[in-house]
Write a structure and sequence with these properties.
446 residues, Aspartate Aminotransferase, domain 1, binds pyridoxal-5'-phosphate, 2 domains, globular, Aspartate Aminotransferase, domain 2, seven-stranded mixed β-sheet, alpha/beta
Length: 446
């Protein structure tokens, strides 16, 4: 397809430098397995499972067939005052996979919606138990929780907040970031061990400042994904769980990236052995083919909201929240088929094994190359942190991304990190190709 045949004028691309894109458009027209075909007929190896979504690889026949069957039976049904069989089936499958008593799912269509839903459920839960004063949320610096107003408020990536700072939720605080670029620049498959207790500030400064009785929830990503794959210190999430329990504060894990296999376990909660009260998911649940997200809630949260209405008239809705496309039958059919593929091919375990290959190859090949300031690997993801040009943070990573794309590999620039997070079906030779392509790009870089 010639560039002139693509009507590039009308679309405003998300999280993209649109001016530079217009000069050198990158347009995908097909995908299969680990590869894309571009508009100009080139093959590009998908090194990021299309933004952490396509765990089982592109164009899986089983998933596409399930979608077709669903379209032939129930294409769509209103989500309010009724349900559809496929959404109940998907909910049952997802809760069966989830740890602890995360027994109820509220569906939505994206990670951002899942986060805003989780924050609202936290408020509803506290109100139901007579603690409506609990409205403070605590996120973490450089956390990413999508782009809704709730998500950017608890999120901690400055660029995502700057333009909208006047419209944030009013009662939010942030934990400090979980990275020490000097002591923990490089780690491979391990949790960094800190001398210092990073959560002391929560206990000694943040909670006393707001008073714990006013705090609704703490929200963190088990591993900070969008900021550039930062792994929490050893024991951090367990201790966070204990602190939240001590003060009646809900713990929300945003597992939009770590959910469904990225760490080699079903959820990050399983990897770390910590069960949150609410768990958000989206990416990978349908292998990327149809938008679907959701919030897993512990049984007690659902029960508390229901109990608060035990004397209400029967027509009274307990939670005034939901989306037109909550539990969309076609998305849920895709989810059920995706979970079948993950199970039948044991892909979470494969993600764990390929994660070691990725971590080892990245460290062996890239450590010591020009501009490399750190490499962080855990599960099937690795971030290579680059030294920044003065005043131009992110420019080097962007240039590496562009060069890799020209050389036939899709990587992700995240701040000054270059991130790899391939599909779980990736082969070792493809991992080597991805890492070698980054190495070549780094050697060329000024
Ligand atoms: C941890 C986390 N939460 C929320 C989101 C937002 O998801 P979406 O882009 O589907 O709204 C993302 C997206 O990358 C994410 O990584």
């Amino acid at each position: 397809m010639a560039r002139a045949d693509i009507p590039l004028q009308s679309q405003w691309l998300p999280f993209t430098p649109n001016r530079s894109f217009a000069l050198d458009p990158r347009v995908f027209v097909a995908a299969e397995g680990m590869h894309f075909t571009t508009h100009d007929g080139r093959q590009v190896l998908d090194g990021i499972s299309s933004l952490w979504c396509v765990g089982a690889g592109h164009k899986r026949r089983e998933i596409n067939a399930a979608i077709s069957r669903q379209l032939e039976t129930l294409d769509y049904a209103t989500a309010f005052q009724s349900g559809n069989d496929r959404s109940f089936e998907a909910a049952e499958r997802i809760t069966a996979l989830a740890p602890g008593d995360l027994n109820k799912v509220l569906f939505c269509s994206s990670g951002s919606e899942a986060v805003d839903t989780a924050l609202k459920v936290a408020l509803a839960y506290h109100r139901a138990r007579g603690q409506a004063q609990r409205t403070v949320f605590i996120g973490r610096e450089r956390g990413y929780h999508g782009v809704g107003f709730g998500g950017i408020s608890v999120g901690g990536i400055p660029a995502n907040r700057k333009t909208f700072s006047g419209a944030m939720l009013p009662r939010v605080d942030h934990l400090r970031f979980i990275h020490d670029p000097v002591k923990h620049a490089y780690y491979n498959g391990v949790e960094p061990v800190w001398d210092e207790d990073l959560l002391l500030e929560l206990e000694q400064r943040i909670l006393p400042l707001h008073d714990p009785s006013n705090v609704a929830a703490v929200i963190v990503e088990p591993v900070a994904g969008s900021a550039g794959w930062y792994v929490p210190p050893q024991g951090y999430l367990k201790r966070l769980r204990e602190i939240c329990d001590r003060h009646g504060i809900l713990l929300i894990f945003d597992e939009v990236i770590t959910g469904f296999g990225r760490l080699g376990t079903p959820f990050g909660a399983d990897y770390y052995g910590v069960v949150p009260d609410l768990l958000t998911f989206a990416k990978c649940v349908t292998n990327g083919v149809i938008p679907l997200g959701g919030v897993l809630c512990r049984q007690g949260i659902f029960d508390a909201v229901m109990d608060a209405h035990r004397d209400s008239p029967a027509h009274q809705i307990e939670l005034f929240h939901g989306y037109t496309y909550s539990g969309h039958p076609v998305a849920c059919a895709a989810a059920v088929a995706t979970l079948d593929v993950f199970r039948d091919e044991d892909l979470f375990a494969r993600a764990g094994r390929m994660g070691w290959v990725l971590g080892d190859v990245a460290h062996a090949t890239l450590k010591g190359l020009p501009h490399v300031a750190g490499i962080r690997s855990l599960g099937l993801a690795t971030a290579i942190e680059l030294q920044s040009r003065p005043g131009l943070v992110g420019q080097r990573a962007y240039e590496v991304f562009l060069d890799c794309f020209r050389q036939g590999v899709l990587v992700r620039p995240a701040g000054e990190n270059v991130v790899l997070a391939p599909a779980y079906v990736v082969e070792p030779a493809q991992i080597e190709q991805m890492v070698e392509t980054i190495a070549k790009a780094l050697r060329k870089l000024a």
